[in-house]
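Problem 12. The chain below contains 437 residues. Write out its predicted structure in C-alpha cell notation.
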Amino acid sequence: MQTQLDNSSIDYSALIHPDRVEGSLYTSSEVFNDELEKIWYKTWVFVGHTSEIPQPGDYISRNIGLQPVIMVRDKNGDCNVFSNRCAHRGTKLCNRMSGNVRAFVCPYHGWAYDLTGNLVEAPHGGEYSAEFMASKGLAKVPRLGEYRGFVFASLAEDGPTLDEHLGRSKAFIDRFVELSPEQEVELTAGWVRHKYEANWKMLYENDTDGYHPEFTHASFLQAIDTQVSDYVGKKDIHTEPVIKDWGDGHTELEFGTGYRHSGKPFEWFGRASPSKFPNYIEAMDKEYGAELSLQKMIDGPPHAIIFPNLFIAELSVVIFEPVSAGQSIQWHCPAFFKGAPEVNRRMIRQAEGALGPGGFLVADDQIVAERNQQGLMARSPQWLDISRGMGTEQPDEENDGVAIGEMVSELTNRAFWEKYKSLMEAETTPIARGEAA
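Solution.
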C-alpha cells in the first residue's frame, strides 16, 4: 500500500530508490508544498524569452511555482522580473498573458509603478513620505539571468549560479539557436496552454521517455510518415536514437544519432527535401561554412529538458507549470529561427498538427498522464518501476560525464529522480509567499 504522508518531515530516502519511486509522490499535497519550497522557489526556473518583450513596455506574465511574476523590458532595454503583486494590498497587477504598458497600475487603489518597478504614483499621495514611496516598489526576483535569449529567475537569495545550474545543458540551447543563420530564435508565434489533471512530474518524465511512443502515439505514427516511425523500439545506440542523462536532472531523447547514421539533412523536419529551403541553406552556409552547416542540418534540434521546467521540443519550446498535486499546465510555442522564413512557415504547420488544439501528440500524452494520475488513486501496488535498462548505461564518447541508454531505457526517469531526491532532502528556508493552500 502507498504511504499516506502527513505534515511531518517526509523521508524521501524511503520513497525514492534507484529502481522505483513511491506512488504518493505524485498525489500528496504535502509533497507538492515541499516541492514548491525546495525546487520551484529554490532553483533557477525558466521564465520567458527576450524575443517576447522586444520593445520598452512589453511584458509577459508567468508563474514561478504558484507565485505570479511579470517579465518586462524597461526604457533602457533591460529585462526585469517582478512579483505580479501590488506592494499596497497585494492585488495582482496583470491578468493578461502579455501586453505593452507605460506603467503598471493597480486596479484596486490606483498605485502606479514604472517599468523598473518603482512606485511613481499613489493617489492622494500627500499622506505618504518620500521614504515610504521609495520603499514600496515591486519586489524584484532575487536573481535573474539569461543565456542566449532564454531568461531564468531564482527566488532564492543565494545558491548555484545560472551557469552552474545549466551546466552541460547549455549545449541544448546552443544546438537549438545555431539552427538559425543569425544564431537567434524567436518565441513570437503565440502560446497554447494545455491543462492536465495530472502531476507536473509526469510531464517531465514523459517528454524524454523513449519507451512510450510506439504505444501512446501509435495512431500518429500510423497516420503520418515520420522519421520517428523508423526508430521506435530500436536499441542500437550507435545508429538509432538514444536517451541521455546530462547530469543535474537535465535529460535528452536524442534523435541525432539516427539522423547522423542516415547522413541526410532535414530528417528531423518531416524528411523535407533540401530543395524546399534554398535560401535557408545559403544563409546557413554563409554563417557556418558549408561543412559545419550541413552537419547542423543533419543533426537537427534537441529533444531535451533543462531542469525543472524548460523542454526544448525540437521545433517548439515547452514550459511545465505546477498547479497542485493533481494538476499542471503545459505551455507550447513554435520557435522561429531568425533569418529563416522558409523554415518558419513549415514549423507553424507542423506545430499545428502536433501541439495545437487538434494536434496528435499532446492529446495522446495528456490522456495517458491523466490516466496515470487516476490510476495512482489506487494505493496498491505501492511502487512505480523505473528499472528498465538499469546497469546497461554507457558513457557518451563525445560528452564527458554524460550517460547514454537505449531509446527504450528508463535512464532519463532515473536521472530526474536522482536530482529531485537531492533537492528534496536538502535543508531549505521556506519562502514566505506563494505557498499552496
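Discussion. The CA atoms of residues 43 and 159 lie 8 Å apart. Students who got a different answer should revisit the alignment rule from Section 12.3.
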